[in-house]
Amino acid sequence: MIRLEININSSKNNYKISCYEFLPENVDNVDIKNVIIACHGFCGDKDSSVILKLANSLEKYNYCVITLDFPGHGKSETDGEYFTLENCVNDLNDVEKYVMDNFKNAQIGLFASSYGANVVLEKLRNSNNVYNKIVFRCPAINMQKTFEDSILKENKDIFIKQGELLVGFRRMLNVKLKFYDELKKNDYINNYNLKNNILIIHGTEDDMAPIKYSIQFENKFKDKVKLVKIEGADHRFKKPGEIEKVIQIATDYIVN
Q1: 2-255 is classed in which CATH architecture?
Q2: Model confidence over 14-24: pLDDT tens digits?
Q3: Distance (Å, whole) CA 121 – CA 217
Q4: What's the confidence (pLDDT) of residue 154?
Q5: How far apart (Å, rounded) are the C-alpha atoms in residues 40 and 69?
Q6: Domain limits, the chain
Q7: What's the rounded Cα separation, in Å, for the pair 148 and 180?
Q8: How many alpha carbons lie under 13 Å from residue 43 in its C-beta half-sphere?
Q9: Which helix (H) or strand (E) holds 157?
Q10: pTM to 2 decimals?
């Protein structure tokens, strides 16, 4: 597998979107029939081991996988000022346009983890596109609650008063209040129209993005959503064999 590091111009802002393009060896772009755009979670990045495992799994089927750093994440040129749900959706749309321009014979699918699924849901809200395959891993269907309960925790009052909060793992992110305000406006269960089919893979013991919201989402859109439960798995699928199971389920769904 070939990994290319590419930068795509943002159509809405004055920055470049840092991306990886995973390509099967000895296959020209014109012969690529399927591209998966993969989205990382909150305070994650395009170096996600899960995305790399997915790209490796799909290589034998001649799939290309492209993944991006959201604003303020990974190698993004930007900081927390640009980290909004709107900008994340815009960047995802710009990556999709890059795929359409450079892989003209390919169908496009989406893979998203945690907050990344929130970005995809917001993208789908304003799009009539029907995608080949969409897979969510541990999606934050109710990102407002995930942000409050798992990220802000006891710092919520400080965050609201100061208008920002520094959080993160490999790279620290100064999250602004306007991001939280966006989350509060969105209800993807009771105020949403879903046109695409989605496979959800979710651990039953997820304490960051509780599976109950995925269950509610499946119940609301029974004809469009299939939920696969991984018994005993947490948000990161840390137990031996869990991630491999996720990748196998996702791969089987995507290629069939």
Answers
A1: 3-Layer(aba) Sandwich (3.40)
A2: 999 999 999 99
A3: 11
A4: 93
A5: 8
A6: 2-255
A7: 9
A8: 14
A9: helix 156-162
A10: 0.97
